[in-house]
Design brief:
By secondary structure, this protein is α/β, with parallel strands linked by helices. It has nine helices and eleven strands. The chain binds calcium ion (CA).
């Protein structure tokens, strides 16, 4: 699964454990230990889902939740609240502040994972699909393999990530900057020209005799996956 999860948790051991387990499941993970920083990072990174601790040193989880749900750029990102408080009243407060789900500590990781997957399936089906097919192209996200016309295509890791991203929304044009952000992430030393290099490699790799070119260059805009 290639979804990006943002963890807001001030207890370092829990944060580390969550990060370790989520990354093992294939998620991209960002995190913060305090509320103010979390708010600005979430607006900047726009993750697919937020795990939010209730008790933080500066802002409470409830306040963060309220801020996020009133900001139209991030209000659709689902929030799962994590808290040591198990009382019914707190659960109601958490859900009233806009959180989509609520989990009481201590919880098991499989339980949390099940909630995360269920949530993503609801709000972002494309990131949970383990296999995505577009025309004669298939991306198997579990095995990290790509097939064209049922034949396996060998791709480098960056080309795989590029294709895996483009195929989530065929026909949508992405700028080089957007592709850089998605595929190279926080590596700021990469130039946008690098995207062109990897797009060229990807094109060559998925080009099979007689097959249609599936990656379109949109002048001065970027690239899209389409017929
Ligand atoms: Ca805490």
């Amino acid at each position: 699964m290639s979804a990006h999860i943002f963890v807001v948790e001030d207890e370092k051991p829990i944060q580390t454990l969550l990060r370790y387990n989520l990354e093992k499941e294939g998620f991209k993970v960002s995190s913060s230990e305090n509320g103010e920083e979390a708010l600005s990072l979430i607006k900047e990174k726009k993750p697919d889902l937020i795990l939010l601790d209730w008790m933080l040193p500066d802002l409470s989880g409830i306040k963060i939740c309220q801020y996020l749900k009133h900001d139209k750029k991030v209000k659709d990102i689902p929030i799962i609240m994590l808290t040591a408080k198990g009382e019914e009243e707190d659960k109601v407060k958490g859900l009233e502040s806009g959180a989509e789900d609520y989990l009481t500590k201590p919880f098991s990781f499989p339980e949390l994972l099940a909630r995360i997957k269920a949530m993503l399936r609801r709000v972002k089906p494309t990131v949970v699909n383990e296999e995505i097919i577009y025309l004669d192209l298939k991306v198997d996200r579990v095995a990290m393999k790509v097939y064209r016309q049922n034949k396996e295509v060998s791709l480098g890791p960056k080309e795989f990530k590029l294709l895996d991203f483009l195929i989530t929304q065929p026909k949508r044009v992405y700028s080089r900057e957007q592709l850089l952000e998605q595929v190279w992430g926080e590596d700021i030393n990469v130039e946008s020209r690098t995207v062109d290099v990897h797009i060229t490699r990807l094109r060559q790799a998925i080009n099979i005799d007689g097959s249609k070119p599936l990656i379109r260059t949109v002048r001065s805009a970027g690239y899209s996956l389409e017929n």
